[in-house]
Specification:
4 helices; 6 strands; alpha+beta; Beta Polymerase, domain 2
Length: 115
Amino acid sequence: MDSREMAKLACEALAEKKASGIQVIDIRDISVIADYFILADGENQNQLQAMQDSVDEKFYKAGIHVKQIEGNHRSTWILMDYEDIIVHIFSKEDRLFYDLERIWRDGTVIDPKDL
């Protein structure tokens, strides 16, 4: 599965758990750490955990295993590293505070529907 298909799968998993503000940033031309960042936010820690579980389950069923996860069930920012893509799951407040969209503004924003 290529990185674009992985990004699409992650977006689908997040949408199934009613994630807000799902956004994809193509960083292939500006960084070697990954091809895509997928960002989404949720209302509370239970929803954030459900979003993480959904992404992990979809990838596991596709034979893709997470390289590393930062954050836990009490975290308000969970980072899931799948090498080619990195999924960032935030509380609304943390997403606004860390503002990865601004930090990675040199990347290309892709509407998840266009994947």
